[in-house]
User: Fold this.
Amino acid sequence: MVEQELSVQQKREVEKKQERTIPARVFLPVTDIFETDEALTVVLEMPGVDKQNVDVMVENDVLTIEGRIDFSKYQELQPVYTEYNIGNYARSFEISSKIKQDGISAELKDGVMTLVLPKADTAKARKIKVG
Assistant:
């Protein structure tokens, strides 16, 4: 078994490419992507985001995930010490034609967004019978 050193990644804030109407910080959610013969699974951490405040869209071969925090939950709190910045989340991925776009599914549970991107039949590995 190979030991692999793990490191903690700090939150990265999204660089502003456009002006936003909501005055809040936007972070890139930490993401892992796994591949099987059937699909890609994208797992994003979006703590504090509720299901009704998430938008997942595919447009022009770009998958965009945006999650908004309900800041009203934090308005009454007076921070004494903080290490965890709160803010919205946004991330986009360019997807190839090897993904069946109309089959993409998404689930948000306990602050973790899981997207399953099924492969198109032409992208799946297949065994070719030798005649």
